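Pilot study result, target chain (130 residues):
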Amino acid sequence: MHGRVADVSPFDHLYLSGLLGDEEVAALLAAAAEIKAMLAFKVALPKAEAIEGIIPADAAKTIANGAHLLFPGRGEPWGRDEARGVRLYFVRQLRAAVGEPHGRHVHLAATSQDVMDSGLILRLARALPI
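Predicted structure:
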């Protein structure tokens, strides 16, 4: 272990891990929960934009349907290899799932950081009462 710091955490320890942390909170911090929350934001944003007349109402509905195609409620949304690029290709994948003519309305007036931050806030809001 010369020149390298070991990845050691009491959360990974065989018997100490049960004394630390919380399974419900851990589930909210898992990759699948992160993706679900990001998709929830990506569905909520166009709904709000449609209400304000920024995008057509049918575009918001089509984006919601595309989100369900991308993540149909399974425990894990993508395989391990696909998950590596999830943040980089998230919007591209959702646009492809939505298709044209409404794909251009996906991610309108939002940044990738907005998606990640909003997804985190949605999960933290669920964690607060725990």
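One observation from the pilot: The chain has one domain: 22-127. A full batch analysis is planned for the follow-on phase.
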